[in-house]
Amino acid sequence: MFSVGDFIVYGANGVCKITNIGPMAVPGTLKKKMYYTMTPCYIRDSSIFTPVDNERVVMRKVMTRDEAVQFIDEMDDIEHLEIVDDKKRELEYKQAVLSCDPATIVGLIKTISKRMSDRTAEGKKLTSSDMKYIHVAEDNLFGELAVSLDMTKENVKDYVKDHTNASMSN
After folding, report:
1. Which of 28, 46, 71, 134 has the maximum number of C-beta atoms within 10 A of its C-beta?
2. How many CB atoms neighbour CB 38 within 10 A?
3. In what order do the strands lie in the sheet containing 15-22?
4. Which residues of 66-87 are buried (b: 16+ CB within 10 A; e: fewer)?
């Protein structure tokens, strides 16, 4: 169980701060059921309520500073995702994001970055799916690293570029 004040990754919502744990004072909810009340770090004026025992959405603590530094040091070793069926590409992108696994998300970013580069070189347009998922993946990854390293997302992106050879976008 998490504690009030913890920063967690909550599914595709990214990093959230737990602001309360307890029953919800909303008609129709069970009085004995415990809920996390969370504030997303990068979505203004928003709150999320989820049962403490929620098993449908990935919830995990953000990386510590040391874990984040080590993770960035190992990013170059993370492989692209293998997507063999173009018809299932968007589904695989979505599953990678929903995994909330930083290594999978880096693999996704590398995969989409390479695909975008290849399409541009071939004179093809970038797909809306590629644009959507690379934005979501980077937002979630850099959001978590920003909290772990006590930096802004923009500074984290520069930090990652300076400390890796990883073919990340932009």
Report:
1. 134
2. 25
3. 48-51, 35-40, 15-22, 7-10, 59-61
4. eebbebbeebeebebbebeeee
9 Rama sector, left if φ>0, alpha if ψ -120 to 50, beta otherwise: beta
Tokens of 57: 């959405």
pLDDT in tens, 112-125: 999 999 999 999 99
Q: Looking at the chain, how many residues does it have? A: 170
Backbone φ and ψ of 64, nearest 5°: -75, 170
The half-sphere exposure of 5 on its side-chain side, counting CA atoms within 13 A, is 0
**Residue 63: how many CB atoms within 10 A of its CB?**
20
Alpha-carbon distance of 145 to 7, in angstroms, equals 12
The predicted-structure confidence for 6-15, as pLDDT tens digits, reads as follows 999 999 899 9
CA–centroid distance for 124 within its chain = 28
pLDDT confidence band for 86 (50 / 70 / 90): confident
Amino acid making up residue 39: T
Compute CA 142 distance to the chain's CA centroid, rounded to the nearest angstrom.
Answer: 8
Which amino acid is residue 19, in one-letter code?
Answer: T
For residue 81, what are the contacts with CB-CB under 8 A and spacing of at least 6?
A: 92, 96, 104, 107, 108, 110, 111
